[in-house]
Amino acid sequence: MGGSQHLTKRLLFLLLVFVLNVAPGVKVFAIKTQIDNGPNIDLIIGIVHFVIAIITFLFFSIMPLGGLFGSYLTKNSRRYVASQTFTASYPRLRGNDMAMSFGLWVVVFGLKFGESYVYLTLSFKDAIRYLHIMNVDSCQGDQELLQNSLCRWFRWSSLR
What whole-number distance in Å separates Cα of residue 131 and Cα of residue 137? Predict the structure, then answer.
């Protein structure tokens, strides 16, 4: 288990964060709790779950996985040779090599963007077209909540 101690700590930390993010949702959706004339426990757990998810998102947006338990790149130890050699080794590119690297990333991004457009956005094409040509004559339904404002806005936008 020579150089895997830092990976084991990281794995256990990530499993703990995973459980903290999944457990409240499982409790709220799978195990219903109802207390007569008391606070809504599921609502409270749902709010706490949302806060935990936001904190997790912000934490992992800022913190790189390599820096979770200190930077292993600054230590001169044989313990982290594999990480320094394989996962944290970036070649310095210059001139045409750098341009080709950027070009490759632009092409990959463009292909992924095009694929997402074709398979995700075009599936909504017919639904959006039918909604646009729909004639809304009466505004019934959400009378209490929106008082016809959504219906009037949709009618105005479809006339343009």
Answer: 13
Nearest by Cα to 23 from 39, 46, 57: 46
Strand, coil or helix: 60:
helix
Residue 153 tokens read as: 């806005």
User: Is this prediction's pTM over 0.70?
Assistant: no
Amino acid at the residue 138: S
What is the per-residue pLDDT across 122-158, written as a single tens digit (0 to 9) for each?
Answer: 777 788 777 777 766 666 655 566 656 666 666 555 4
Find tokens 């343009």 and name the residue: 160
Rounded to whole angstroms, the Cα distance separating 45 from 78 reads 45
Residue 70 main-chain phi, psi, to 5 deg: 90, 155
Residue 74 CA to residue 95 CA, distance in Å, equals 29
DSSP states of 96-135: HHHHHHHHHHHHHHHHHHHHHIIIIIGGGHHHHHHHHH--
The two tokens of residue 92 are: 């310095």
Beta pairing partners, 70: 68
Q: Which residue has the higher pLDDT, 151 or 98?
A: 98
**Residue-wise pLDDT tens digits, 23-50:** 999 988 888 777 777 678 888 899 999 9
Q: How far is CA 33 from CA 27, 40, 47, 71, 108, in A?
A: 9, 8, 15, 44, 48
**pLDDT score of 105 more than 80:** yes
